[in-house]
Amino acid sequence: xxxxxxxxxxxxxxxxxxxxxxxxxxxxxxxxxxxxxxxxxxxxxxxxxxxxxxxxxxxxxxxxxxxxxxxxxxxxxxxxxxxxxxxxxxxxxxxxxxxxxxxxxxxxxxxxxxxx
Length: 116
Ligand code: AMP
Prior knowledge:
Radius of gyration: 14 Å
CATH architecture: 2-Layer Sandwich
Largest sheet: 5 strands, antiparallel
Bound molecules: adenosine monophosphate
Helix content: 10-25%
C-alpha cells in the first residue's frame, strides 16, 4: 500500500491542523502557505491521488465536493467572489497527491493570473 498523504495524516490526527468543516465525505483545512487572504483546502476523505485518477464510482463524490465548496465559501464570507483551483499532476503544480480543491477568496482576479 502506498504511503498516507499529508492530508490523510491530518484527518487521522497525526499532523496537527484545525479541521474547519467535515462531513461523511470530505473535510476543510486552511492552507499552511496561503496564496490569498482566504485560502482553504477542501479534501475528500477518500485518498484519490489526483482528479484524473477519479473513476465513474467517484462521480457523486466529485459533485459533492463542488457543492460543498460553494457552501464553505459562503460560510467563510467569500461566497460572492471566490476561485476554485485543482492542480492535476506534477506538471500542473500539484505537490500533494491526494485530490484537493483550493478555495481562494479576496484574491486579485486579474486576467490570466491562474498561477497559485
Ligand atoms: P497542490 O500544490 O495543489 O498539490 O497544493 C498542495 C497545498 O497543500 C499547498 O498549497 C500547500 O501549501 C498545502 N499544504 C501542504 N502541507 C500542508 C499542511 N500540513 N497543512 C495545510 N496545508 C498544507
